[in-house]
């Protein structure tokens, strides 16, 4: 099982809950809990870890200047960490090679990759736009886990 396969397996068991760490300007870490999953990058097609962040949050501000992220997925004592640089795609963050008109579909894809479902996708799109949600796409450079997993 590859590292991202392991992430997908944990996502299916814990609703994609992950703790993500970004870096503040002073070098300290900022952590938050997100729903995340594995999907294909909309420009490169490579598998990435994706999550959606509300516009105006500290994690988005941190990622704009220091795009390094660590995401840790956990179920019981099993865990896997993914480290890498992140691409941002959102109303305030243009992603080279990505058509901004496709953002609602990308936000849906990230949500589904994290195990999410919705009864009213038009309402989902409206809320995502109102909250200026941004897709965060982490290109895995290092994937590691606890021994025996």
Key terms for this structure?
149 residues, alpha+beta, Pnp Oxidase, Chain A, six-stranded antiparallel β-barrel, 4 helices, 6 strands, 39% strand
Topology:
Layout: H1 3-13, E1 17-23, E2 29-40, E3 47-53, H2 58-65, E4 68-75, E5 78-89, H3 103-113, H4 121-130, E6 134-145
What can you tell me about this protein's structure?
The protein has about 150 residues and is an alpha+beta fold. The chain has a single domain, classed as Pnp Oxidase, Chain A (Roll). It is built from 4 helices and 6 strands, in the order H-E-E-E-H-E-E-H-H-E. The chain has helices at about 5-15, 60-65, 105-115, 120-130, and strands at about 15-25, 30-40, 45-55, 70-75, 80-90, 135-145.
Shape: globular
Largest sheet: 6 strands, antiparallel, barrel
The residue ranges in which pLDDT falls below 50 over 5 or more consecutive positions are none
CATH superfamily: Electron Transport, Fmn-binding Protein, Chain A
- Kindly give the count of domains: 1
CATH architecture: Roll
Question: What's the average pLDDT?
Answer: 95
Provide the spatial order of strands within the biggest beta sheet. 1-2-3-6-5-4
Q: How much strand? A: 35-45%
Ends distance: 10 Å
| Number of separate helices | 4
Q: Which structural class best describes the helix and strand composition? A: alpha+beta
Number-wise, the strands total: 6
